[in-house]
Amino acid sequence: MEERKGAKPSKVEDEEKWVYDSSLDHKGNVPLRAQTGVWKASLFIVAIEFSERLSYFGIATSLIIYLTKVMHDDLKVAAKSVNYWSGVTTLVPLFGGFIADAYLGRFNTVLASSIIYLLGLILLCMSWFVPSLRPCDTKSCHGPRKIHEVVFFLAIYLVSIGTGGHKPALESFGADQFDDDHPEERKQKMSYFNWWNFGLCCGLLLGVTVVVYVQDHVSWGVADIVLTAVMAVSLVIFIVGRTNYRYRKPTGSPLTPMLQVLVAAIAKRSLPHPSDPAQLYEIPKSEKVHGRLLCHTKNLKFLDKAAIISAQTLAEKPSPWRLATVTKVEEMKLVLNMIPIWLATLPFGMCVAQASTFFIKQGATMNRNIGNGFEIPPASIFSLAAIGMIISVTFYEKLLVPILRRTTGNERGINILQRIGIGMVFSIATMVAAALVEKKRLGAVESDPVKGSHSMSVLWLAPQFVIIGLGDGFTLVGLQEYFYDQVPDSMRSLGIAFYLSVIGAGNFLSSLLITVVDHITEKGGKSWFGKDLNSSRLDRFYWVLACIVAANLCVYVFLARRYSYKNVQKVAVVADCYEGELEKGGPMA
């Protein structure tokens, strides 16, 4: 760090010049505020997210079409394969986030996972262009070669593994560029998640229009080359920006301190609670600590026993397995408090799963001509969800937040859990709209079996895609903020992975629900899931989902109203604390 000459600067001037939030610059020194982080670094990261999402959605939204047209799978098998792949893709980040936080660091994790991602895309290209790996020798065949199936699934699961490190580490690395203890940067961080999703949606939009058009009208192989080139360029961009970034050192396994709290609490289970929480053990603020200190909260009191200073701990040097700090206890409470919220958001993840499976397949059966003989690919209808999310995020950031800040006095405008709950209402509306449109489509098939649903424009699907996009602008962005902000500071990559796991577990639950409904309805005479859409009853399945989400919303509101947010000690005043969510009347009031 360069030597500062002349008169000693005041503490305020010093904190304006340097960043004291445990981050480092690329040389391992305390970062200069003016030269590192904030938007100058985050824009690099948002640009990479744009490129990666273009590649991901170029594969994801067309996967069910590829499996039914090239692999010749029936609808039920194809939908399950897509759900399994999507589920793995959004659950692997739990492992990737753990590695990033504990051992590799976020920058190195993004770098390594991007290389794995790129290898998957290269293998995908080879599965189309290498003659011995192609689906078949002729233009049309009844089923692909076994070697093509093996190489194709290996390629897309390599993309899954790459995404598993890329997604949690990159998004949390971007948020790390803002200092939580600096008022201006803290406000910018709140906007970061909105603009992150704006970049994500722009990538998604190009992925489901340009890339999908190339898949449909040129070839799948050419589209794979485009995706590979985009990913290679994004990797170069990421490396070029390295001097602008703020870095965090990995802190070891975040699970060990939580286990220490549990062991210490059990060991001292017979000790009485102190009447004053100030008597619980905490590192003095005069000592240098890594990360922020948390204030004591009243819930889950049993864990407080881990921080009780007993005669035995006074007599000897305290072991972390015998005596935990209040901050470590509160971090354990944060993780436990998240479990009910995570479970209550899973039905939302089930709704999201329908957009990349049955919604896309519905579009494939309808009239996709939109004028002058131009036929849009089935997966391109997904672009309406991206447009809906872009509108939602922009409206929220530019219009709603300034008004709500003045009205509620909350820095965010509304609490994070309120934002998530609003999006859940949109997901119910999505399923209702989807059920009504599918009922009309089946009516068209019944009235004219020859022409079928081709008499209906694909734009009939617009309401369900736009509504789910509008809802994603609330729920998905809210989930990202919630899991990043409310986890312990040492677990922020894992926090983003928890958000992604909502979507992943939702995909697996969707597959399970399909299996259960298929089994029950088949016993009743005719399954709701036939060989194709026209012999299925997806409208009834959508009504079931709408009812599940509506019932779950009641549970979610109950949990949200009782939720206790992270309580962080202020830097300037030793005895003062503030809650991460300054609220009026409770989270869902």
From TrEMBL:
Its main location: membrane. It is a multi-pass membrane protein. One of its GO terms (molecular function) is tripeptide transmembrane transporter activity. It is found in: Membrane. The keyword Transferase does not apply. InterPro entries: MFS_trans_sf, NRT1/PTR, POT_fam, PTR2_symporter_CS. Keywords: Membrane, Phosphoprotein, Transmembrane, Transmembrane helix. Belongs to the major facilitator superfamily. Proton-dependent oligopeptide transporter (POT/PTR) (TC 2.A.17) family. This is Major facilitator superfamily (MFS) profile domain-containing protein. The lineage of its organism: Eukaryota, Viridiplantae, Streptophyta, Embryophyta, Tracheophyta.
